[in-house]
Write a structure and sequence with these properties.
The complex is a heterodimer of chains A (425) and B (176).
Chain A: H1 27-50, H2 53-70, H3 77-89, E1 95-96, H4 97-113, H5 116-120, H6 123-129, H7 140-146, H8 149-162, H9 168-171, H10 176-180, H11 185-200, H12 204-208, H13 211-221, H14 239-243, E2 249-250, H15 261-294, H16 298-310, H17 319-327, H18 331-368, E3 378-379, H19 389-393, H20 395-409, H21 421-424
Chain B: H1 2-21, E1 24-25, E2 29-33, H2 44-47, E3 55-59, E4 95-99, E5 105-109, H3 119-127, E6 132-136, H4 148-152, E7 158-162, H5 172-175
Antiparallel strand pairs in B: 2-7, 3-6, 4-5
Classes of the chains: A mainly alpha (425), B alpha+beta (176).
């Protein structure tokens, strides 16, 4: 398309080069992963070994500064879930290895040390951690009801990512526009709303939406080490429960009436049956939603537009359909492609609906079944985000810290090197 | 019980990693626009997570006709062929026009001002040589997990490219 030949300059003019500023150095990927690893290790150390709220707090501030404002919320583990889903189901997508590391490391840490990623590393959690001013307890029905949303959202995010349609978690990330200090007004406003809400309801995004938190919660339930109060000498003062802004402290079950084994079986049977019905119903509903959902896919949307234009239903061409018409590709090819995507949505939608039903069913089942007896206040490993607030409020923990501090000041430490304490005693 | 579940979870993650490791791009990748697919819709200016957009117009000088009446620089019916603002197509005045030897003019882009609206690209490509085109400038791009312009791009012109070849500049040879 060379309409005007470039001139032959007589004055010796040379063509200036087009500059090509290089992307962020490859090395910085390693730096990001190293910082993540270090932050996770520190968080685990601060929470489980040092048991220090102060240290956790400063790590939180660091995460807001580094992962939030410096890295502008990218890459983040929450979003990486979708990259992994897309890579699994789409052969054309190459996953950057650092994204895989961001997906994997917090989960592995959760399997060993609980949700230390949520505690002080995740930039989304960290910013909410800093705004908790006067948290209130939510009524249990609301807490339980809302706590199933992350799993359903996770399923939806995987469905849309796997079909190559949208990255929901990134598009509806409430704090990323704040970290970037730019973005659509609606998203900035959403971030503001979450932060405002977060002053009264502890971490609303983490607890009732975060899809990656759902995965971490599952891992944390079976983790080797978790946040523990000192159950041996719990005085039932409830101060930890009062201190926890996230409703993660479970009361002792001993005082509650125990259902007889017969009653328990009856309930299990009823709710188990209900769970099966929910799975089947969810699957059916998910299948029904496949068609409206698939419209979010750009290829399907384009195929619908082209079809509507061909049948005279649509008068105006969209940008996308103009480009398509200009390209001169046959419409049949596009329709076939859209149909394939829609079929994937049908299967995926069914699975997603079934998952949603299963989550609801398991929730119901968990409400009637007291499988673990507690005689003291304990953090729930699935809910606890390891913020370490309960430590500072537990009187026995305070006494323990004092004991340890005193032990340090005892002149035993002044004994000559190599001398055994026990021998002297 | 917990031990078993943890082992199972580890094994599950292991299988997942094994499955994906094959697909992990060994090289670092970045987002870029294919200028031959771009349809100058103007969404780059508004859809990028950055304000102003990381997408900027670039000029490939050897492709340029150095026209006196540049259709990427001037409004369709300019009052006069001078640098007066009302004659310029660019809403931010990011294109600089400099007289060389008669009758040629050099057009270069001041990236600080460019917002990636593609008005000049459209003019240059429809009526000129198409030496103006949009590229994602990597000194600004934050390389999001998913590029929000790629999501809305009607021509689906934005994709990941290897970071050692981060630009898709137009060239004279492409059409030769």
């Amino acid at each position: 398309m060379e309409r005007f030949p470039p001139p032959d300059f007589e004055s010796g003019y040379t063509f200036p080069p087009t500059t090509a500023p290089p992307p962020r150095a490859d090395l910085m990927q390693y730096v990001d992963v190293a910082v993540l690893l270090a932050a996770l290790a520190l968080a685990a150390y601060f929470v489980l070994k040092l048991r220090s709220r102060k240290h956790v707090f400063w790590l939180t501030v660091f995460s807001v500064a580094y992962f939030g404002f410096y890295r502008k919320g990218c890459i983040c583990s929450v979003g990486s879930t979708q990259d992994v889903a897309l890579a699994l189901f789409n052969s054309h997508y190459t996953l950057p290895w650092s994204v895989l590391a961001f997906f994997l490391l917090p989960l592995v840490f959760a399997l060993f040390f609980g949700r230390v990623f949520c505690a002080a590393v995740c930039p989304l959690g960290a910013i909410q951690e800093l705004v908790v001013v006067k948290p209130r307890t939510l009524p249990p029905w609301l807490e339980h009801g809302l706590s199933v949303i992350p799993f359903i959202y996770l399923g939806a995010g995987i469905l849309f990512a796997a079909t190559g349609s949208a990255f929901l978690f990134c598009q509806y990330d409430p704090f990323v526009s704040l970290y970037r200090r730019s973005g659509a007004f609606a998203m900035v406003a959403l971030g503001g709303v979450f932060l405002l809400l977060g002053t009264m309801i502890g971490r609303p995004y983490c607890r009732f939406l975060c899809p990656y938190g759902a995965l971490l919660s599952l891992c944390s339930r079976v983790s080797r080490h978790n946040v523990t109060l000192l159950p041996d000498d719990c005085v039932h003062c409830q101060l930890c429960d009062v201190a926890c802004p996230y409703g993660a402290i479970r009361e002792p079950t001993g005082l509650l009436p125990t259902p007889t084994p017969q009653q328990l079986w009856q309930r299990r049977l009823v709710f188990g049956g209900l769970a099966v019905l929910l799975v089947l119903g969810g699957g059916w509903l998910g299948r029904q939603l496949a068609v409206p959902f698939s419209k979010l896919n750009p290829t399907v949307a384009l195929a619908e537009q082209v079809a509507a234009e061909a049948t005279g239903k649509a008068w105006q061409m969209t940008d996308a359909s103009k480009v398509f018409h200009d390209s001169g590709k046959p419409a049949e090819e596009l329709y076939a492609q859209a149909l394939r995507i829609r079929q994937r949505f049908t299967v995926g939608g069914m699975l997603w609906g079934a998952l949603a039903g299963l989550v609801l069913g398991v929730k119901l089942l968990s409400l009637v079944q007291f499988d673990r007896r507690r005689c003291s206040f304990e953090p729930d490993p699935g809910q606890c985000v390891a913020c370490a607030r309960c430590y500072t409020h537990c009187p026995n923990e305070q006494a323990r810290i004092k004991r340890e501090q005193r032990a340090k000041t005892i002149p035993l430490s002044a004994a000559p090197a190599g001398a055994s304490v026990t021998k002297n005693a | 019980m917990r031990e078993t579940a943890r082992t199972a979870a580890m094994a599950g993650l292991g299988v997942l990693v094994g499955g994906i490791a094959l697909k992990t791009g060994a090289s670092h990748t970045v987002w870029q626009i294919d200028p031959y697919k771009c349809s100058w819709c103007g969404l780059c200016a508004t859809a990028c997570v950055l304000q102003p957009s990381a997408v900027k117009c670039v000029q490939i000088y050897p492709m340029c006709g150095y026209c006196k009446l540049c259709t990427g620089y001037f409004e369709p019916e300019p009052n006069a062929l001078n640098t007066a603002a009302e004659n310029q197509l660019c809403p931010t005045g990011a294109i600089k026009r400099r007289a060389l030897e008669d009758p040629y003019f050099e057009y270069s882009i001041e990236e600080e001002l460019c917002i990636g609206c593609a008005k000049c690209v459209k003019g240059c490509t429809l009526f000129g040589n198409g030496s103006f085109h949009l590229q994602i400038r990597h000194d600004r791009c934050v390389n999001c997990n998913e590029c929000s312009i790629a999501v809305v791009c009607p021509a689906q012109a934005i994709s990941r490219v290897p970071a050692d070849q981060p630009y898709k500049f137009k060239s004279r040879e492409h059409h030769a």
